[in-house]
## 1
Amino acid sequence: MPSAAALRLEIERTLEHRFPAALTPAPKTIYEVAPTGVAAVDALLEGGLPVGAISEVTGPESSGRTSLTLAFLAQRTEAGQVCAWVDVGDAFDPESAAASGVSLKQLLWVRCRNESGLAQAKPWTRLDQALRATDLLLQAGGFAAIVLDLGDMEPAHAMRIPLATWFRFRQAADRTRCSLVVLGKTSYAQSSAAVVLESAPFQPESVGGTVWRGCMFEARRGRQRFTPQLASARKPPTSAWSATAAWEAKRPA
Amino acid sequence: MSSELYACVHAAEFPAQALLRLRTDLQEQPIAVLDGPVLQETVCSLNRHASRRGAVLGMMRLEAEGISGLQLLQRSAEVETAAHAVLLECAARFSPRIEEASHGTACALVLDIAGTELLFGPPEKLAERLREEMAAAGFRVSVAVSANFHAARIKAEATRGITIIPAGEEARALEKLPIDSLALTEEHRETFALWGIRTLGELAALPEVELVKRLGAAASDWRALAHGSARHTFQPIEPTFALKEFYDFETPVEQLDSLLFIGARMIDCLVARAVGRALSLASLTIYIGLEGGRVHPLAIHPAVPSMDRKFLLKLLQLEMGAHPPLAAVVSLTLTAEAGQSSKMQLGLFAPQTPEPSRLDVTLARLKAIVGEDRVGTPVLEDTHRPGSFRMESFVVDVKPATPKAERPRMALRRVRPPHPIQVVLHTMKPVAFRDGNNRFEITAAYGPWKTSGCWWSQDGWDTEEWDVLAASHNGEAFGSLLILDRLRNEWRLEAFYD
């Protein structure tokens, strides 16, 4: 009676001309990930956001995109790494970042400006500045995470970013081992994004109707290049997480 | 064997050499340098190409302008001072004992090189290296080495290239040189001409006593000089180490490229001088002299001292691009502060951070794109004023991080500048607000949170903050921060919760 190993070898040899290594599982590449600091999201993403790739955190206003991204930066700066925030709409709030645990000394903030000075001016100048700044930062290397904040940008405008630009960013991020996080209302990088995390509208939590103490958010995995979604799954994997207000004190156990 | 040994470095036509040192494009052109009061300017120095065209020293400006192709430059004392410092700096690499022996428009330095054989090899090798070093700094010099101070000085002045005078053969080395090599008065020169004495050898052959009887005590010194046996007490100078370069443009320059062309050469020289002392450039200060007498200062402070000329030139280019001079440029001065060469011990497990020199260039480029004050690190102000912070320069300073929040915190997205809104109140609570054309219904309002401060000064504040949950007409819900400015009695949309 031949052993199972010998039998498998014999079958593989027979099928070799049609299926190389038919019964041997393909080696799995382990991609490096960095935790976001939110356990539910880390479980959803199987460890965190990928390193050396583009991740997109999308959703409407008040869907927890910024809170999640700041939690991710807090993890990176806590590990002694340097991060950058390219701010198209000049919306970054240093107080929120500090409250989230981001070490501001390790954060480079690039504030794009509207040269015309008009609030209603077209965003092309700011968008162009942001893309050039991101390009420079990616080329410089050494940044563990770069956030390209397109959160206030209308999708009609941000969708005009050429795919070639995203492809270039992807290559540069891969080469410099940088996590490029794109914050937007919808997904823009398309096939260049390794992960798309969709944030859903929130459920506020309050105490006695007088104090707003936090929010419940929902995160949905829209796309994950390195972990293909099973065709049988009807709905994308989802998880809920919560963020507390900056004034919410730690409750005694 | 004599224990004394001197090397004389002689840079002839120093005013021209000093001007051409930084202008490599003009070095193969006929150049004459003019000096003197306006309308009485005469040629005080020229290069060999100008001599071939027929230019001579003492020629008036009008005559010089008649020579085709001859470029006329104005003599600059500051340029010569900077060039002299560079010459001295180069010479100091071979010997700490240097005596100044400049004469007329030439610059001459005599180095005491006794005992340097172990460092630089025999005198021939030292002279070659000395000449190469000077050539790298932009000077064409002649070098003479002798055991006699004056023999080395006279021979270097009278000949080109390298001359090594063996000990005891000074008289033979000098005998064919013209008697004009000595600093004689016109009267004595005529006397020697009448006697038929034309070379130093002929002067040295005259009997000393008879010579002194006829021409006085000074004649004994001339004879000793001509014989190569004059005694000298060495008087070393103390060169001060100052990294400074200066260039005076003959015509006002408006294009940055032209400035950078000279700036690059100046940086080269500064780096070479710093490297000669095992130092790097910690900072560069640029003073751009403008038409009308104003000075446009610029400063470059690399994160770590650097000796990379390309990197420093890039920073200079970006700084000049960010702060261009507002008038034509007439002079350029670069001063540098020396610093210790950067040493960094990298660790295998240390977190990856941006390389300091690349980061400097990246930051300068970012500033050129978005503006000087819009790139940096946010630093929270020590105040209770909401949303108060300042921008500081970004420096990679990785230290143990502050304790991070245990749970994710709700973040704000600021609206800059805050948007004025009209708010509808009901029982003192906001129930709706209008932002331009859109109306938002408030489903929940938490507040008011009152803050005030600095009431004693002009920039005081007194506000009521409301955290509201609002919904637009199409059902999109969001959380935002509304502020009632009680001093101006106006409502503003300050931020969104996200």
## 2
Amino acid sequence: MSQPLANITEVLAKHKLSLADYEHIKQILGREPNLVEIGIFSAMWSEHCSYKSSKVHLRGFPTKAPWVIQGPGENAGVIDIGGGYAAVFKMESHNHPSFIEPYQGAATGVGGIMRDVFTMGARPIASLNSLRFGDVKEASKTGAHQRYLVRGVVEGIGGYGNCMGVPTIGGEMSFESCYNGNILVNAFNLGLAKADEIFYGRAEGIGNPVIYVGSKTGRDGLGGAVMSSDSFTEATKSLRPTVQVGDPFTEKLLLEACLELFKTDYVVGIQDMGAAGLTSSSFEMAGRAGSGMKMHLDQVPAREEGMVPYEFMLSESQERMLICAKKGSEAAIIEIFHKWDLDCAVIGEVTDTGRMELFWHGDKVADVPVAPVSEEAPMYERPMTRPSYLDAVNALHVDGFERVSNHAAFETMFTSLEVVDKSWVYGQYDSMVQTNTIKKGGMLDASVIRIKETGGALAMSADCNVRYCYIDPKGGAAVAVMEAGRNVAMSGARPLAITDCLNFGNPENPEVMWQFGQACLGIKEACAELSTPVIGGNVSLYNETNGVSVFPTPSIATVGVNEDQNRVLLSSFQREGNLLYLVGTTRAEFGGSLYLKEVCGVVGGTLPAIDYEAERALWELVIEANKQGLLSAAKDCSSGGVAIALAKMAATSGKGCNVIMNVEDEREIFAESFSRAIIEVSPEHRGAFEAMASKLPHAIIGTVGGAHFTCNDVAMPMDRLQALYFNTFQSVIEQDL
Amino acid sequence: MNVGIVQFPGTNCEYDTRYAFEQLGCTTQILWHKNDTVAANTDLLVVAGGFSYGDYLRSGAIARFSPIMQAVIDFAHKGGKVLGICNGFQVLTESRLLPGALKRNEHLHFLSRHHHLQVVSTDNAFLNRFTCNDIVNIPIAHHDGNYYIDEAGLRSLYDNDQVLLRYCDAQGNIANPNGSVDAIAGICNAQKNVFGLMPHPERAMESILGSSDGKRMLEGFLNA
């Protein structure tokens, strides 16, 4: 073991550890730590790995249901989807790296979430993403930089996912000034596995070998977990070396090799090396099983000479996995990985000491008890204060602004980047590989793939209206759960579970911490009410630059099952002459609305009323009526209200509509009351549908057809509607090229 | 019919291709790139889509040196039927089994969407179930689909009925998504036993996935 450190204050500062942490480490070790050990504690106790600020709030999330096979705590959550199969899914952020280096940051975000899924034994079959950018429309330097970030992130997501042969089938994207200094890149992946063949991240069985597979370890990404646990300043550009570089080709080989390995019975446990690399994978695998571990770091395949133990433990080189295998299977495992031209090395073994013992050419270079590193990690109950901005923001009301014609308001809202078609984005993603994609980017609401093995389909949707979360963090988070579930239900699938990705500002700011606490309460409430438990998630804090924090952004991805792949309900108009129903109650509710943002220029108001019973009833109606074949299309009403929902259905189908909505105030066609949907029904099913809908507020508001989109006093020829819808995004995003 | 499907490291459409041919009742076999022979009873070899060897250096450039490619080349030279889809098309041009080359898309973006194609020639095993000027709807998904051939080569392609498919819109008007010479989406060799196209017929086998036009293409091989 090497010498105690001389310049300890400097070392601690560099590792973002406090003096109290240092005393705690000394108490755990019973001696002074060396640099390798400091590095280990620094990574494991970083916000990113330890959830030290968020943990107290995450307790009590509903995580159980009869269909949940694995909840939070593993690499990804698992639900039973019937027919002997399981869906494995998770969503994760890669915000800080993507702001520093958009292509690689986003690409490795995709790579990381796919590894989380296939390490569980599942083949990744679908990806989504949830992206937030700043003022991309602006001519300013900030605007130009934002457009550069959009282009880089989109290309990075495509570059990685396309090469992996995993379809990116949808996502969401929105734009607010608060993201100018911190864009958000949340990547979701879902994999398919047999329900009784799930693999876990455990290292157990004394003497069982610990095997390293995948790419060689290099110096890239050193300290990434620590970097992403801090706010940004002007000096952040110098952090570029902490961003990992992705190689999707190697990951594709790693995927195929792992899937081949999973067909054998050699694996005891397996985990990917993500944030904090070899450190977190080894400690977590030993920790879950209550085991100890010996690792010989000189046996780890290295990309360059002269690397030291500290670097091996903290590198975040991509495309690597740690496997605990049955003793005696080493040669067979090595053969599989060599077939796929990948490195594979036995680097250690499981012990019963409960300690992580690290060696370098025979010398012990670190010796740390495993359990205390996670169990005794610092946990904060950070102070919380209701933000001072809320009163002023909540007091804003649509009546306080000058009236504009509905037609002018419509055109402004319909051309906002949040609304228009984003084929410029999703056209760069291979959405059809694996030949399962039924509903993809551009087809509105949830994305859907069929499952060849079961004949059913899986619907998934990632959502978060950040304006709602800004004016009411608790309600806004609950609405994200409602909306993601509603989108899934509109395809005829039953929502079963969610994964979340909680992106917030600086937790040391009591107002941000309050937002975080409130959002967690909202998720708990909505998930319990809607029977969609949380089966995994991720927290990203310190999304703050020069003191400006992002809006609370709890991204929610919901997954649901449709038993029949031939009964997937679409969201565009289907047939001229069909009836259009509005189901649900419309009130003059504009809090956090697109109308207030785009027409009045403010993010404010009070959140529309939440009614879980109405939400559940809407889901049931669509799911059951669709099973009976009564529906032609369904689309939820969200940002921009009924008018924008109808306009999207029209633009994407090329079919017009003639709608008269009964309103007290003409602006209500844009109101954003929750738990509503537009449902298209052919005239012959009118009676049967209305009988089923009798307990819900519902009304025929018009019919599909004609050369115009018409909704009350708003009318636009279809060719103009489609031109605006399909051309706006590209013209904005490519204006500098 | 026995279909062999080539699998390089980085190929990612081999299972889609297998599924498609099995739906047509074919027997399929995945051929690992280190194999240097092809089963004697093989009726069709498919070089499937993906990113062989990561498409590093140049799409298809490294795959061309794989042991299996010598077997594919021998098979083709003996008159065996070979179909290259997307990355497979790139591999076949790199291997000189097909003329021309595939460059980066003109606008430099990866491009994934359904695209209409106009059937240009039907006097071959691949498109014998179509008539000229038929319009089909088939997914494309590529970064390097910009087909290039010099003028003399182009003339010779037309002279021998080697241009199979051109990109068009739903009405049949030529629409060029990637900058290809003459909006060419697929070609065959002069002997009409080696076929290459950028669009993915194996992704257009069922109407619930958006189109079943690819089925008629692959079915062409059944009775050829």
